[in-house]
Amino acid sequence: MFKPSVIAAMFLCVPLWAAAQMANREAFGVDEHNNAYYLETDNMTRKGYVVYAWQQVNRLRENEINSRSTREKIEFDCNFKKYRIMWSMAYTEQDGQGVQLLSEAVSNPSWRPILPDSLSAKMLSFACVHVFRPK
C-alpha cells in the first residue's frame, strides 16, 4: 500500500507534467472565433517532405460536443504546401485537460490547401523549418 506522502507526491507531479507539456509548444495565434492554436514542438517527425505534428486548439467557447480543446495529428506537405488532419481528440477543458470526449482517426482525411497569411501557413512554415533544421 502507498504511503500518504507518496500519493501526495504523485498528485503534485501532475501539474508539473502539464506545465512541461505546455512549455513544449509554439503559439500561432487565434482564429476569427478567438480559438488559440498551438503546435507541439517536441514530437514532430518527418518522412520525406511530409511533417507529422500534433496541433492543440483551445476554444473560447464549447463546441457542439461540449469540447473546450482538441489535440489533432496533422500531416504537413512541405513540398506542395498542404495539410490534412489524421487523428482527433477532444477534451472538456482547455489544454487537453478534463474528460476526453473522443479519440478517433479521421475517416478519409483529405488534403487542404494552405492559404497565404493564414494560421495554417504559419504552422506549416514553422513545422517544415523545425524538422529540417540541423540538430
Please explain how this structure is put together.
With 135 residues, the chain is α+β, with helices and mostly antiparallel strands. The chain has one domain: Lipocalin. It has helices at residues 4-23, 119-132, and strands at 25-30, 36-40, 45-47, 50-58, 69-77, 82-91, 100-105, 112-113. Strands 1, 2, 3, 4, 5, 6, 7 and 8 form an eight-stranded antiparallel beta sheet that branches. Strand 6 and strand 7 form a beta hairpin. The protein is globular and about 40 Å long. The chain starts with a helix and ends with a helix.
What is the CATH-assigned architecture?
Answer: Beta Barrel
- At the third CATH level, what is the topology name? Lipocalin
Which geometry do the CA atoms define? Answer: globular
Rounded radius of gyration (Å): 17 Å
Q: Give the overall average pLDDT.
A: 86
Total beta-strand segments = 8
Return the structural class.
Answer: alpha+beta
Main β-sheet description: 8 strands, antiparallel
CATH class division:
Mainly Beta
SSE string? HEEEEEEEEH
* CATH superfamily caption: Surface-adhesin protein E
